[in-house]
Amino acid sequence: MMLEVLISLLERIGILLIIAFLIMKAPHFRYLLDYEAQRTTYVYYTMIFGLFGMIGTYAGTVITEEQLVSAFWLPRITDGQILAPVTIVSVIFAALLGGPMVGIGSAIIAGVHLMWFDTTAGIASGLAVLITGFVASYTYRFIVSNHIIHTARATYLGILSTCIYMILITVLVRPFEFSIDAVTLIAVPMVITNSLAIIILTMMIRTTLNEKELGVAVETGKAFTISEQVLGYLKEGLTPKTAQSIAQMFLKEFRAVAVVVTDTEKILFQTNDFLKEHKIETLFEEREVSQAVSTGTLQVVRKGNGFSALIIPFSRSTHVAGLILLYFRETKHIRSVEIVFAEGLGKLISYQLGLLETEKLRVLLKDTEVRSLQAQINPHFLFNTLNTIVTLIRINPDQARAVMVHLANFMRLNLKLMSSPLVSLEQELVLLESYIKIVEVRFSEQLTIDLLIEDNLTYYKIPPATIQPLLENSIQHGLKKKATGGKVMISIEKTEENGLRVIVSDNGTGIPEDRLHSLAKQQMASKKGTGIGVFNVNQRLMALLGENAQLRIRNLPEAGCEIKFYLPNLNEERGL
After folding, report:
1. How many Å is the maximal CA-CA distance in the chain?
2. Which one, 9, 56, 92, 238, has least CB within 10 Å?
3. β pairing state of 486-494 and 447-453
4. Using CA atoms, how far apart are residues 76 and 91, in angstroms rounded to an integer?
5. Contact status, residue 436 vs residue 470, Cβ threshold 8 Å
6. For 500, how many CA atoms within 13 A lie in the half-sphere containing its CB?
7. In this structure, are strands 461-462 and 423-424 parallel, antiparallel, or unpaired?
8. For residues 188 and 56, what is the distance between their CA atoms, to the nearest angstrom?
9. What is the DSSP string of 456-475?
10. pTM exceeding 0.85
11. Beta 423-424 vs 267-270: how paired, if at all?
């Protein structure tokens, strides 16, 4: 008879899994995964999962002393019968997806209903469901991290909940002999079916999240394209005419009902009378708008008066230059995909504006040449990294997202450090670390990069983006013929004069003798680029730290090349 119970429960679990699959495919369900739900959303999903638990009760299996009763829709349980429900799985499902509030709420609904439904073991069954809801909610953070459910931990939770159910049946149901016989009969089938259901559910959820991540990757690729188009307009300046072109483009790409483009003081263009319709006359007095202008960070506005909004600031150099406001009729239209898309787009536009500003300043003012050189990023490095991201999106979305984060950090740091002729060595090493993380993904099987850095060196000053171009030069030129086994060593140590010695060496092919002595003294164009990387580093070192800081380049006897330079202790020189 135990086998019959197992088969019956598997049938019921199969039906519930089909229902769960259909729920997860519904657009409204995905909003639960996309953003922190509002109170009305919690109530909505609490009722849904509570109903889901009630269905699990009606779809259970009834055991009597003589036979097994199995029907798609069971009547109320009477004396002499005991129910093997699949409600526990529904409650765990609710807690792991909706968090503590949805888990506890649905457990109360399903548990109270179960107490009414089962007159023999209703109290025991209802208490088991309630305890399951509280335990699942309490262990939520242990089982779920970044919306990823740990399958093994969730399975342990299912087994624990089933054991609690069996204990309560044994303790509370009388006659005692009947409860022991019932537990003996249903314990193993319930453990097997509950565990199997939880495993399948976590796989379904993981698939749903992977689909969402793929959507984020697609939107990110779209962001690069849009940012290039926006830059084309902004090259002409931020005017009402260019603002109109930008607004119409954003209106097309997003599911927005209105788009507003502003500078930091006034509205330049709006696609319709949406602001007037919602009586927003003093836009810059709105708290979120003011905060976006002052902090330069994306603001998400969710209001209950008929609209929600994304406020995307974009910066020129270190100051916010303007805002792009996207208005939506409903909060649910602002998913995590749209937020990530908008945030990345704002950063890309800001970065490109920074490059554009740098180029203008370099042409207009000769004394900004050093800073403009600091802001340069090798286009081959940028394009190769973007191609790597595109490839990883198809085969490893998690790694693609990590590379995108490192690239964004590198670009943001490079733009930030551009404003200072000298930065601390600590800041320079943070920039270098972001670059290395990207390179390690692109050339994971080709090379290794070792860092040997003494402690307490962060108070030394260095021109920003000094070490990274030297490392890039070793990779692009010194190691280009090494398919495997390439190695770059970066060493930073104190000298006897309390200065700092920085050495970048590799085990590559070295530098041809006819280029060795002129490499840092003039631009050496090549097929890989303009050849200004090492030259610029040397020019900035000498201009900012003196002739003694210039690059010293030599080929190593064993193989490869070594580039080194010295950093003085500026505090000692200035008597600090």
Report:
1. 99
2. 238
3. parallel
4. 21
5. no
6. 24
7. antiparallel
8. 18
9. S-TT-EE-SSSHHHHHHHII
10. no
11. unpaired
